[in-house]
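Re: beginner question about structure tokens

> Can someone show what the tokenized structure looks like for a real chain? I only ever see the sequence side.

Sure, here's an example I had lying around. Input first:
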Amino acid sequence: MKRSILISLLLLIMLVPLVANTEENTNVAESESLALSSTEESQVITGNEESSTPLELLSEQPPQREEGLSPSKEVVIIPGGNTTVSGVNGYIVIPSAEPVPGGKGTSISTGYSGIFSTDVYAHIPFVQLGFSDLAEVSLAVDIDTKSDLLLNAKWRFSHRKGTSLAVGIVGQLIDVATAKDLAAQLYFASTFSSSIMDFPSKTTVLLGYTFHKDLNTNIDFGIAFQTPFFPSAFKDKVFFLLDFGNVSYSISPSAGDAENRGLVNVGLRMAPLKVLDSVYLTADMRALDLFDHKGRALSLGFTLAFRPD
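And the corresponding structure tokens:
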């Protein structure tokens, strides 16, 4: 049973980005064909090719789009360099296949996430290093009634046509002072461009395995989306986050507990704001584990990053 689930999820991870890229290439081809036919039509109608450039012809005689073809939309760049609750570059609890942007040097980020509910007030400070857009490491401390250490390492081994593939591991030392329980999550992630109801989206599919004896199942899976939130009102500066699956940021999170192997999280994210030369600030507001009363909580987080050009 576990083997069949694992094979199915692997096929899903590999096929979904291929379908997304195929649709994207088809749309680009249609747009280029439409632009070419519009240019030729304008030249025939004017009949004075010597006195006008092709650009002028297009401006004087706007192209008529064929019925059934929608106007080409402005490309929206969905920024990276955003952290999960535990400081890994990604969504809410699901990591992305993209490491934190580092340019040609090493980026350094630090941040804090607070988790609030009726019986929980937890602090998760973290520090993160990114290496030349290829890899990242991060260290976080989940501080509640106990303290847990979370160490992440991620390596992106492929980046082609807007699709990234990465492997990562999250080492966990639970209850440092007393129990000293150990766990580790090994994961494979694929991140690619897609669309949700005609809105651009950055999507990640994750498949992993958690090494710990007290879980209902050790096979991890998740999917996450990031898309502009009311883009006309917020000018593509605020993004909506959704991730769900059967895995949280650790085996013993302060909130968003995946003990029953299922949770849904939503959030809003501010695009990175440049506050100084090579220094960026971003902030998140999240709702964790919406459909499980025991693990439901709110989270606020911010990250300050230094990314050399």
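Each token stands for a local structural state, so reading them left to right follows the chain. DSSP finds three helices and 13 strands in the chain.
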